[in-house]
Specification:
143 residues; alpha/beta; 4 helices
């Protein structure tokens, strides 16, 4: 089932993601896609806040993975933009996160499409400059 949400500020995007984090069940996998600058990291920060994580959350662009243990559920936050071959994920030990009891959020998930577990939630964030600089169309496709 696909839902379309619209936000008009980073704060609204974060609040939407925070609600998703509060409602997330153990084992949830969220695939987060969108062009550079659409707000994927803001969205990740919102999910983390919804899980009760208070430490700063930034995109793990160069480290690929950042994990946070302090929330209601563990958050595994991936940024796989720099992954050129899905086999590289083996070196990171992705299966514990993808099939574990925490929440797994994957930025640029299309880079590793063949590794994504069945039933993952796909979220795409899109800009539309004609609707304003801060406007975002957020498409949520829950399996």
């Amino acid at each position: 089932m696909k839902k379309i949400m619209e936000t008009n500020s980073a704060a609204e995007t974060k609040a939407l993601a925070e609600r998703i984090g509060r409602e997330a069940a153990p084992g949830t996998v969220i695939c987060l896609d969108g062009d550079l600058g659409t707000g994927k990291t803001v969205f990740a920060q919102g999910v983390a806040a919804g899980l009760g994580i208070t430490e700063p959350v930034s995109s793990p662009t160069f480290t690929i993975l950042q994990s946070y243990d302090e929330g209601r559920l563990k958050l595994w936050h991936y940024d796989v933009y720099r992954i050129e071959d899905p086999d590289e994920m083996e070196e990171i030990g992705y299966e514990d996160a993808f099939y574990g009891d925490g929440i797994c959020l994957i930025e640029w998930a299309d880079q590793i499409r063949e590794l994504i577990p069945e039933g993952a939630t796909r979220i795409t964030i899109l800009k539309d400059p004609e609707k304003g600089f801060d406007y975002r169309r957020i498409e949520i496709d829950e399996a």
